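User: ok so my PI wants both of these folded by tonight, can you help

Assistant: No problem, let's get them done. Here's the first:
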Amino acid sequence: MNFKQALALLLERGHGNKKNNLAEVKKTANLLGLKNLAYKTVHVSGSNGKGTVCFLLAKNLKLNGYKTGLFTSPHLVDICERVQINGKKISKKDFALYLSKVLKKETVKLKFFELLTLLALLYFKDKKVDFAVIECGIGARKDSTNIIKPCLSIITSVSLEHTQILGNTLKQIAYEKAGVIKPKIPCITGVLPPSAQEEIKSISAKNKAPLFTVKKEETKLKENQNIVLKAAEILELKKKTLNLNLPCRFEVLKKGKKYIIKDGAHNPDAIKELAKIYKNSPYFKQENTLIFACSKDKDYKTMSKILNLLFKNIIVTEVTQNAVPTQELKKYFKKAQICANPKDINFKNLPGNILICGSFYLTSIF
């Protein structure tokens, strides 16, 4: 199997939202020798901030001399970005090779993310990493990453998202996110809504898992940095850094005289945080341009209420098959122009600086 064939197979397996029972994923994992991992893992769940915490923590582990694996999603340009060791992504050759190894042992037809999870864990095993930082996909309790036994669990945030899968209340979603909590294993959380905090506190108590919650800060970025610092303390890391420019997380680029800001914020809580950072930045002007797209399972109606207040010029577009149609977005972004294909947008003709948000897939295009 070559890389092109591997991608085609993954896309074919990715159709539909139904996941396999976690027990089935475990069966294949056991056949791959992944029942008891030789390396330590940190398991990270949350509605927002997972990627930031994962990247920062992985960098700190590397800084302390540990060979560190990192499994994150989604990717921006190349699927190989999801599987990294010490900041270097898996090669296309190894990606295809390790997918083949997983396929040979699968006991049922595994889905896109399930295959990727096992691919990453096996790759980290063979490459003899010391640590691996593992980001959950959706939720945590039923997520394929929940076959690991971490030495530390992290829940960055809880907000209403993926409600058709995780539940309609913050308490229900907190219950799913708390799947990362394991008996007697410490857990760190960001500042959570009261009902979510109580649910996680209850689950931690049942598991006799020490629970640490960082203090409230002016920005979620600062809270996420505090999570990383607490994690470093628990893991007894001597060297610490919080310096990391993450792609598509308030990433600022200069193009001629314009500034382009790319941020993957795609739910109301993340958009609120983005709006706060953006308004207090030197790039904010009312005449700037917003480029927005999102998938159908996101709360675009609430996001539009926040973003409409910040921009005179708005372009709505579509970036995936699951995108909200531009005509539907236009109902809520009433000042918006429609551009069906984001690749047709000419930055030279747009007023002011440009903010691109709503989807990591959208931000990765520019």
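One down. Here's the second:
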Amino acid sequence: MSALDWSRYAGVESIPGKVSGAWVLKGTQTPVKVVFENLEAGMSIDEVIEQFPVTREQIDGLMAFVARSLETVPVTADPVL
């Protein structure tokens, strides 16, 4: 699966020298990667909001962008060996 082009989503930013240039939710120092790592580890969205300086709107926008991006990614089947 190819990586998402975060530059296409206005809700995030990557600024050299800010959090090592990682993609962060705009206006925060919270990396997008950290949000997804915590969700993958079992945190709820509400818990992420409590732990990090992000809003429900930021998380909802992030998830909507990812969902839209996944709709446009071509799905290919791996050949059965």
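Residues 36 and 43 are 9 Å apart (CA to CA). The chain has a mean pLDDT of 89. Good luck tonight!
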